[in-house]
């Protein structure tokens, strides 16, 4: 459905209906609104343009008479043609182009979230990102000041990224995760999502089976789906994925897991489960893709070591990122794996975007080697822990007999499971009317669920408290 980001100028000499005719015909002629696109109802257009319905009726009559719009059976209006004069050249049929290509469109709910996250006025209780006030401004300023002294050039980098960053990551992975990885085992990517993308396009065949936790972050990524993979959700318990339910793995299958501070459930896979999972996968020749986006964000005690740390046979590919600990805008992530795998990914990366931002890579190197990063991380953990406690207290006060939820030991997420079969899409839309933007659980799952992913990393504690009260009053009505 077409949306409008324009309003007529009521002070202009040109009549309002003519401005609307011009706006709509220009959009169609420019190819922004492709043939077949549906216009909103006349009532919705009157609201969007802040004009009387009769003005819309006049404008629509004129546009219909040009032959560029047509009424459809349901009483709506569609774009019929993009030229009102036969002399006008025809632009390409973009609709045909747009609907080809491997990517599915995002789910409408995800499209709405992606759009509204950039509009002011919403309390964002689902956003999986640090709040702007948690961004380490002073630290970044300090590092940027030093950049001219430490950066010899900002040219293209080699397939694995900046060697200095590779060395810094290699040291950190060993120190913090017990992962033995030489710089030759590490490829810097433009975010860990790109790591996933590269793995799916250059290591997996179409139709390969990819096992994931259910629910998982994957459902909203749709990366594997777009690459033609056959996704298979495996249920979880309190200790993590119930791997013994993996059946029918073939030689080109793969397991994708988020063992630490899982997105969206916040769970941490126990040490025993990690060991048993690795041993199961090794026995069954099933490679593991371990996504450790939240591993460093623990509160009370360190989580068990990464699965990759116990991998002595090169069965695990590990993904890391700075998006959750620092800033997603840096677009820096890394893939750790056997040399042959990393080289192949690096080669394809060079064919794709010729390397991640070198500014971000120099900045991360400075940050990781300066010692300031650890001080910053300690502060961040403390802040997130406070926000978690605040959100949990608000849930206890408002949702006590309406839902159950986890107490996350790190990361960003509380997985709020509603007791009743509440229509979660309706809750999502009603919450929007109250200025709340939330992430309904069904965008993460293979089957219908009645859960909501709450992230305490974005909204400030006061807003979060208010938001949980409002959410409870919405859910209560369905109880
Ligand atoms: C589990 C997980 N992996 C990866 C990402 C994305 O990371 P990046 O920004 O490095 O692509 C996210 C972001 O939400 C995530 O939750």
UniProtKB/TrEMBL annotation:
PROSITE patterns: HTH_GNTR. Residues 14-82 form the HTH gntR-type domain. InterPro entries: Aminotransferase_I/II_large, HTH_trans_reg/aminotransferase, PyrdxlP-dep_Trfase, PyrdxlP-dep_Trfase_major, PyrdxlP-dep_Trfase_small, Tscrpt_reg_HTH_GntR, WH-like_DNA-bd_sf, WH_DNA-bd_sf. It holds the Pfam family GntR. Keywords: Aminotransferase, DNA-binding, Pyridoxal phosphate, Transcription, Transcription regulation, Transferase. GO terms for molecular function: DNA binding; DNA-binding transcription factor activity; pyridoxal phosphate binding; transaminase activity. CDD domains: AAT_like, WHTH_GntR. It comes from the Bacteria. The keyword Kinase does not apply. PANTHER family: HTH-TYPE TRANSCRIPTIONAL REGULATORY PROTEIN GABR (PTHR46577), TRANSCRIPTIONAL REGULATORY PROTEIN (PTHR46577:SF2). In the C-terminal section; belongs to the class-I pyridoxal-phosphate-dependent aminotransferase family. This is PLP-dependent aminotransferase family protein.
């Amino acid at each position: 459905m077409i949306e409008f980001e324009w309003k007529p100028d009521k002070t202009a000499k040109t009549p309002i209906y003519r401005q609307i005719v011009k706006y709509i015909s220009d959009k169609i002629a420019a190819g922004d609104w492709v043939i077949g696109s549906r216009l909103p109802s006349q009532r919705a257009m009157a609201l969007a343009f802040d004009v009387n319905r009769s003005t819309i009726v006049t404008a629509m009559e004129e546009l219909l008479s040009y032959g560029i719009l047509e009424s459809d059976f349901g009483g709506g209006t569609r774009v019929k043609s993009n030229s009102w004069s036969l002399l006008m050249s025809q632009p390409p049929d973009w609709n045909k182009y747009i609907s080809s290509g491997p990517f599915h469109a995002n789910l409408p709910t995800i499209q709405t979230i992606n759009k509204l996250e950039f509009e002011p006025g919403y309390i964002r209780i689902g956003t999986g990102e640090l709040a702007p006030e948690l961004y380490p401004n002073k630290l970044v300023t300090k590092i940027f000041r030093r950049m001219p002294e430490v950066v010899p050039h900002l040219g293209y980098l080699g397939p694995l990224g900046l060697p200095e960053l590779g060395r810094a990551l290699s040291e950190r992975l060993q120190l913090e995760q017990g992962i033995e990885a030489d710089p030759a085992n590490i490829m810097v990517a433009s975010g860990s999502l790109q790591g996933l993308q590269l793995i799916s396009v250059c290591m997996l065949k179409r139709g390969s089976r990819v096992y994931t936790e259910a629910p998982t972050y994957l459902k909203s990524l749709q990366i594997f789906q777009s690459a033609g993979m056959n996704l298979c959700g495996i249920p979880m318990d309190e200790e993590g994925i119930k791997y013994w339910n993996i059946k029918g793995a073939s030689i080109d299958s793969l397991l994708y897991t988020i063992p630490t501070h899982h997105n969206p459930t916040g769970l941490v896979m126990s040490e025993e489960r990690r060991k048993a999972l690795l041993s199961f996968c090794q026995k069954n020749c099933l490679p593991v893709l371990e996504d450790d986006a939240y591993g460093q964000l623990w509160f009370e005690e360190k989580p068990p070591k990464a699965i990759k740390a116990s991998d002595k046979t090169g069965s695990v590919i590990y993904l890391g990122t700075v998006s959750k600990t620092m800033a997603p805008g840096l677009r820096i992530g890394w893939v750790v794996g056997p040399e042959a795998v990393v080289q192949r990914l690096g080669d394809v990366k060079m064919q794709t975007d010729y390397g991640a931002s070198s500014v971000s890579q120099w900045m991360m190197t400075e940050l990781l080697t300066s010692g300031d990063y650890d001080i910053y991380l300690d502060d961040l953990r403390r802040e997130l822990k406070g926000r978690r406690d605040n959100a949990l207290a608000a849930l206890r006060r408002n949702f006590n007999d309406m839902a159950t939820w986890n107490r996350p030991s790190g990361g960003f997420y509380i997985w709020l499971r509603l007791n009743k079969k509440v229509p979660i899409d309706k809750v999502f839309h009603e919450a929007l009317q109250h200025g709340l933007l939330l992430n309904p659980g069904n965008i993460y799952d293979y089957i219908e669920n009645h859960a909501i992913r709450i992230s305490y990393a974005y909204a400030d504690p006061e807003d979060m408290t208010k938001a949980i009260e409002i959410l409870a009053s919405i859910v209560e009505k369905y109880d």
